[in-house]
Model the fold of this input.
Amino acid sequence: MGEPGIVLAVTAALTFLLAGFVKGVIGLGLPTVAIGLLGLFMTPTEAAALLVVPSLVTNIWQLAAGPAFLPLVRRLWPMLLCFCIGTWAGAGGLNHGSMSHAGTLLGVALIAYALLGLSAKQFSVPPSAERWWSPVVGIATGLVAVTTGVFVVPAVPYLQALGLNKDDLVQALGLSFTVSTVALGSVLLAGGFFKPAVAASSLFALAPAIAGMLAGQWVRSRVRAEQFRVYFFAGLLLLGAHLALRHAF
Done:
């Protein structure tokens, strides 16, 4: 491995260490941070391929730690199914010609997510409306994910609006992200983006992601998570603005 390859490997490892740390503290953010930072020097599709193994393992870990797996599956299955449909329907966007604006779209997605996170506004979705909103949110999130590699918008704000208690919300996020990763990974594999060398690099990224997540969980019990969330979303806003403006101009 030459010097550029070593620099890239170290940068990717540090990125996943930070992304895992954020996820350990607030229960989400690994894909968003990793895709956002890796998007500074590679395409969102390449970054998403590196993310497959760390995202899948850490989200299954988060999913398994919760108490309400089956009730959440019964409640959220329309969104999860439609996420897969949206991801597969948008698979054609992975071709090189349509990826020219992916960096800008990634920046816009990060900005939207950061502004929602920084907003004090609390959204609420009544149970009677879930049957209509769940498929729409699933399709929209899938289309955003296959273009940018980020599967938090609009799924995360929607899940936060369902009125779940803290433990159920963390498990619902893990469930959503697990299904999202499997769907996106299948599209990347079918499109030839998840080759053996990329899979090996993704496996290599698992160690720093887990180390960061363990460190974040340790810190979570000693800091105010809400204050950390403000710093996280503020940093995400700056990163999204940089990506959007850099690729736009």
